[in-house]
């Protein structure tokens, strides 16, 4: 369970040497036990730490798990406007077999380079430490070489606070779920041929590049599963007319779509309510607001 106080400065966070993280040497169970996520309050302040496993447990003591920091990368081919999707591996413990954005994971305590951003980093959208985590996981999950995704080319757009029980996989009393403040990062490459993509079989079962129309077609296919967090991002911000996907150059090169000072909050759809702790809505009528394309927003950090 999460600690009651902020984690002490980890090796990579106070300037001393840290042990290298090697995802290729760990099983899914190893990462659940050994990875230490950043536990948050509702305003995205780091208040402690927890194992990846403990933070994702949905039970009577923690009906919605433990709120922690995450990121979602959406990587596009500039020449075609296509988005790279991945299908999470069938061996994943949480949300297996679902299509989702290019890469989604967690910044961790004790990493080198560091992955713990300050409130100022979040407020101004620079988030260099979240970007460090994104580079690490792009390499681990998809084989993307670090030199192909320099930090200064990532574009941070916004944050969302959501929770979902993994009832589709594990049933209505699912012991697993997600409860995250998720940093949304866009990235573009000139062409997909400039990117190395070699998926890790324990992480990813499939990848595909999609246009907006192809994604809409896939999302309407009831035989396909999509991650709840990606559905929120796509339906709330990417797909609507005038959204992030319509003009990638404008999204990447201007501040038009940047919203660093707010955290949008979303309850899950009915099929992801409940779990082992029988959790109900956290944000009141946020489900209805999300369906209307509004979401529930709270200004923070200013």
Give me a quick take on this structure.
This protein has 302 residues and is of the alpha+beta class. It has helices spanning 28-34, 52-55, 119-124, 128-142, 167-170, 212-220, 228-238, 248-253, 286-291, and strands at 36-40, 46-51, 68-77, 82-88, 99-100, 103-105, 155-165, 177-189, 204-210, 262-266, 296-299. Strands 3, 4, 5, 6, 7, 8, 9, 10 and 11 form a nine-stranded mixed β-sheet that branches. It has a two-stranded antiparallel ribbon with strand order 1-2.
Q: What are the salient characteristics of this protein?
A:
globular; alpha+beta; nine-stranded mixed β-sheet; 302 residues; 11 strands; two-stranded antiparallel ribbon; disordered N terminus
- Cα-based radius of gyration, to the nearest Å: 18 Å
How would you characterize the largest beta sheet?
A: 9 strands, mixed
Termini, distance in Å?
31 Å
Q: Spell the H/E element sequence.
A: HEEHEEEEHHEHEEHHHEHE
> What's the rounded overall pLDDT mean?
89
Quantity of strands, as a count: 11
Proportion in helices:
10-25%
Q: Which spans of ≥5 residues are poorly predicted at pLDDT below 50?
A: 1-12, 286-295
Number of helices: 9
Q: Please state the structural category.
A: alpha+beta
Shape category: globular
Roughly what fraction of the amino acids lie in strands? 15-25%
How do the helices and strands line up, and which of them pair or pack?
Layout lengths: L27 H7 L1 E5 L5 E6 H4 L12 E10 L4 E7 L10 E2 L2 E3 L13 H6 L3 H15 L12 E11 L1 H4 L6 E13 L14 E7 L1 H9 L7 H11 L9 H6 L8 E5 L19 H6 L4 E4 L3
Parallel strand pairs: 3-8, 7-10
Antiparallel strand pairs: 1-2, 3-4, 3-6, 4-5, 4-9, 7-8, 10-11
């Amino acid at each position: 369970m999460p600690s009651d106080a902020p984690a002490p400065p980890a090796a990579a966070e106070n300037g001393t040497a840290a042990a290298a993280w090697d995802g290729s040497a760990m099983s899914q169970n190893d990462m659940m036990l050994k990875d230490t996520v950043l536990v948050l309050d509702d305003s995205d302040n780091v208040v402690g730490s927890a194992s990846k496993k403990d933070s994702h447990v949905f039970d009577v003591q923690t009906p919605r798990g433990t709120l922690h920091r995450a990121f979602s990368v959406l990587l596009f081919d500039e020449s075609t406007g296509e988005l790279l999707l991945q299908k999470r591996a069938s061996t994943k413990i949480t949300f297996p077999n679902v299509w989702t954005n290019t890469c989604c994971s967690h910044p961790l305590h004790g990493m080198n380079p560091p992955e713990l951003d300050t409130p100022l980093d979040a407020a101004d959208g620079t988030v260099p430490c979240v970007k460090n985590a994104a580079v690490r996981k792009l390499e681990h999950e998809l084989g993307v070489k670090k030199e192909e995704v320099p930090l200064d080319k990532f574009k941070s757009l916004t944050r969302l606070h959501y929770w979902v029980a993994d009832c589709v996989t594990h049933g209505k009393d699912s012991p697993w779920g997600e409860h995250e403040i998720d940093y949304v990062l866009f990235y573009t490459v000139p062409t997909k041929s400039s990117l190395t993509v070699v998926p890790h079989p324990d992480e990813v079962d499939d990848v595909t590049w999609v246009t907006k129309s192809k994604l809409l077609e896939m999302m309407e296919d009831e035989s396909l599963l999509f991650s709840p967090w990606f559905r929120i991002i796509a339906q709330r911000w990417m797909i609507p007319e005038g959204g992030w996907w319509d003009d990638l150059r404008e999204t990447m090169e201007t501040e038009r779509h940047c919203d660093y000072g707010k955290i949008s909050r979303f309850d899950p759809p009915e099929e992801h309510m409940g779990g082992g702790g029988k959790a109900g809505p956290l944000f009141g009528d946020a489900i209805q607001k999300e369906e209307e394309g509004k979401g529930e927003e709270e200004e923070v950090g200013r």
